[in-house]
Amino acid sequence: MFLYFLLTILATSSFAVRFPRWPHRRLTDDIINNFQPFRYDREILGKLEKIGKNHFRIDTIPTQEIVKRIYSVSGFPKVSQILKLDIHYPAYTMEIPHFVTLEDKAWFDSWNSTSNAHKDLKSCKENKISKLCLLADPNYETYYGSAHFTRGSLTSYWNVIIDPTKGECSDQDYGKIISFDDKSPPLLQKAAFLKVYDGWSFQHFVDRAMPKLSQAKHWLERYDKKDLFILSQNHLDDMVPKLFRQYGFNNSHILDYPKPVKVKEFLEICNAPFIHPVLWQSMRTEMLKGISPKSVADRKKIIYLQRSSETAENALRQPIQEPEILSLLYQIPGYELVIFDHKKYASVIEIAELMSSAALVIGPHGGAFTNNIMLPAGTVIVELLPKGIDQTIFWMGSRALSHVYWMVPCEGQWNSVNIDCDLNKIKSIVHWHLLDIETSILGGKCDPYNVWGMKSF
Predict the structure, then answer these.
(1) Mean model confidence pLDDT for the chain
(2) Helix pair angle (277-287, 393-400), 10° resolution
């Protein structure tokens, strides 16, 4: 008891080492509006513009504020004129996942991607690059300040012949340009290139193509949609055309063009950060068009992302404990359990309606977590991740969207038919957030100053 009060005094004192906070149990709208699981570096920015209430309380550069540079380029490929917008996003730190035990956190810290992000933070601190990294806590924050995470551009080329079959998106898509031609009439007035690896699928269209679309949204809105075409691949997943429609593009304007084509104005929109909170917030805004926001009190659904042969492209990574997990979730009073099957929903709006009502989403690692792009801030996410996978996309995406993200390591590999998860860890997380019950995998009370574990140390 004395140790508990000592920790309380230390954690609330101004000179104490700042522990990562245990996530709020019962979330309220006020908590969510002020929930910020990452921080931004504002020092590198020039003119700033405030983002609205439903976005993070941070600043960014609006597209129209970026200096326009018009210049000629000689050599190969030869083009007469380029209009380019260079976009500098603020560097940011991101809170690492929540874990039930310190052993689970140590497993996460051993990943190469985690180690590299920590190295970037250490280098930033040593070189005193910004106040952001000086303030960041290396125990629970990762730092992203490189060009891969903070730089983008939009470029227009006039009167060019392009070959849309030459690969996929790269940072510099002038490689698609074969030659300059100001004499023959164009077949397409305006075209943007947006082929990404596995972009035919819902999951990879969201995480690889949509950040680019969101960055280019205002750029593309300058044009009459009837004259603008998107050069993309055939979409085997019927959700992809529906996602395009959220951005205002119908099927007739999505082309998988099989040969070189003359374009009056070619729009290069591929160079965008892989993940950045500004862009992912914008992506969610597009997905939730027409959806009335729900207060926390009205979010009463628990969504289980099942990986059966009926609900997933493959039936891998099914938890051995799935019957017990479902039984646990069914018994939470006041909440409705929904076993998610995307085939039951005819539109993006129907899925968004469901996701906007979620208090907690849980399931084994898989593409269904891509639907998190439609979840409101403050939703609790529990990903059951096989230890044979060091996959960061759903953690980083959830943090960028202000979700409360938990990672539960399970025994198994990416291609395992079944994975073995600790039911007590899952029970502890669910009870903590939905029942206000402090439980422990050891049967004792949790230490609220130890964000990583339910155990008292």
Answers:
(1) 76
(2) 80
- State the Cα–Cα distance between residues 422 and 210, nearest whole angstrom: 35
| 166 C-beta neighbours (distance < 10 Å), count | 15
Gap between the terminal Cα atoms of the chain: 12
Beta-sheet pairing, 228-231 with 254-255:
parallel
Under 8 Å between Cβ of 392 and 112: no
| Strand 418-419 to 318-319 pairing | parallel
Comparison of pLDDT for 356 and 308, the residue scoring more: 356
Dihedrals phi, psi of 12, to nearest 5 degrees: -100, -5
Instruction: State yes or no: cis peptide before 77, omega within 30 of 0.
Output: yes
Most confident option among 116-130, 144-158, 325-339: 325-339
DSSP state of 77: S
Is 0.90 surpassed by the pTM of this model? no
Residue 320 has pLDDT above 90, yes or no: yes
The token pair that represents 261 in the structure block: 């084509």
Strand, coil or helix: 267: strand
Tokens found for residue 407: 């990672």
Q: Which phi and psi (to 5°) does residue 328 adopt?
A: -60, -45
- Give the C-alpha separation, 196 to 320, whole Å: 35
Contacts of 166 (CB under 8 A, 6+ apart): 175, 176
Alpha carbons 222 and 50: distance in angstroms, whole number: 23
The residue written with tokens 């300040």 in the block is 145
Cβ atoms within 10 Å, residue 253: 15
Q: Where are the domains of the chain?
A: 61-89+149-281, 290-434
Question: Token pair of 106, please?
Answer: 């140590």
CA distance 397 to 147: 18
- 């395992």: which residue's tokens? 416
Q: Fill in the DSSP letter of residue 420.
A: B
**Amino acid (1-letter code) at residue 11:** A
Q: How far is it, in rounded angstroms, from Cα 35 to Cα 395?
A: 16
Do 19 and 11 form a contact (C-beta atoms < 8 A)? yes
Given a cut of 50, is residue 75 above it in pLDDT? no
pLDDT of residue 200: 86
User: What architecture (CATH level 2) is domain 290-434?
Assistant: 3-Layer(aba) Sandwich (3.40)
